[in-house]
Design a protein that fits this description.
- The chain has a domain at 2-230.
- Helix content is 60%, strand content 8%.
- The chain contains 22 helices and 8 strands.
- The model has no long low-confidence stretch (mean pLDDT 93).
Length: 579
Amino acid sequence: MDRYKLFNSLTGWFVFTVAAVLYLTTMEPTTSFWDCGEFIGAAYKLQVGHPPGAPFFLLLGRLFSLFAGDPSRVAMMINALSALASALTILFLFWTITHLMKKILLTNTRITTGRMIAVLGSGLIGSLAYSFSDTFWFSAVEGEVYALSSLFTAVVFWAILKWEERADEPSSSRWLLLIAYLIGLSVGVHLLNLLAIPAIAMVYYFRKYKPSRNGIVIALLVSMIILGFMIYFLIPGFVKVASWFELLFVNGLSLPYHSGVIFYLILVIFLIAAGLYYTHIKGKVTANTVLLAFTVVLIGYSSYAMIIIRSSANPPMDQNNPQNVFSLLKYLNREQYQASPLLKGPYYNAPVIDVKEGKPTYVQEDGRYVIAARDPEYVYDPRFVTIFPRMWSRNEDQHIQDYKDWGKVKGERITVQGYSEGNDVLVKPTFGENLRFFFRYQLGHMYFRYFMWNFSGRQNDIQGHGNVLDGNWISGIPFVDNPRLGPQEDLPETYRNNPARNRYYMLPLLLGILGMVFLYRKNVKDFWVIMLLFLMTGVAIVIYLNQWPHQPRERDYAYAGSFYAFSVWIGMSAGYLYM
């Protein structure tokens, strides 16, 4: 086993070196499109970018920029941060795959050279497949947050597997505390990392308890509660409670600005310290560990203090000016963007029947906080409100037309009171058409298409909106491609020689399916853990984002975690072939 550990470490660092050389030699020399220029500029001078911010990424970017030598190389150094973070992601993917395969092929009674090669080979196949995948490679070479976010996902998932190995040791809880701290830090990069929590929880459950149907359901519910607590309560809620104290101290007690926040922070520190002391002297190990985990999450989350500090300095880029707790709360909640409904909401043509006053906007004036405005809250005709609303955006005519096209909307005619005299007749989509849009556009076009880019092939890098010429997935197999996209043999040279045109002949897809079947047969617990990670970073994101049609750019980067999980199955295919 010692020989295996040596080779596992050496091969992992070899994979890291391959990935690092690949990404460093192909990274952007300056800046690329969309948010990269903003992130690079914000990191270089520690400025305030668009909500909800990425303070920990900016701090690391600032650190890397110090090695630039001159300003002309700052962008390249921040791009190098993404390249190295991506290479480390590949390293931890390799170790994740070998850990899972080792439990199947290597035991103390069956350590053979052939089996050891199969384990290391599985790690090589899966990690290198992900290294060269379309989506991950693209994110790895530019100064964006998604490479660093992928690293956090990879590390926390690897860490729970290390805990699984050492769960019976007295000090094993340190791995859980490391995971909690990394999750707190990752909030300062991107919230995508939080989606690994359910898979982490299931590893914990399978290791500590004898699995049962009820137990699995309870474990899943607890993991979802933790995830919801992080997204909806801890991240905005910690600041929201601070705003209550600030309002009380400044408006109620006539104390200076920020006095309420300072008192609140001191109170939180005191309560945490008292709780840790009490649980320690009383020997309440579980309660102490949970409280420690909560504490280190807050320590990681504290990177957001940079946002207020730098906004108070009024840098050139100071989006939303979040220099007090009220503006920071709006910044964290992304209130400048239109919120998409999740469980219940209106269709795109729902008539507005009332407007109510919503959340207040506080500004500083004469030593107090005064309400400058209130957000409007629209009340819609209940006949046009549905559960699981997918066709909701009314901002652009293009959105509405695309809803009708993708959903094949015929609808039902409903008479409503007109804006002038008389009545109007509106066509409300049916719930079936709502689901058709969900499956055809949100799942099919905005997820499955990206999935197939990485594991089957990509037509070109021209953004597609459903036409047969641009941005589709291909396989290189005529009977698969031609019925969907037409004959591919006589394409114009512009399309045939597009640099982004890839044909994998579905080989990575088939390997992943083989690995999936192999893992299910050999270790059903690990299969469901990887499946949960795959679904939470894929389909769950599709449901949560609830994207409108005709997006301004391709969104495959949001699903990199799902492709990461599938690459684990690609690696497991080596075990299938070996067995």
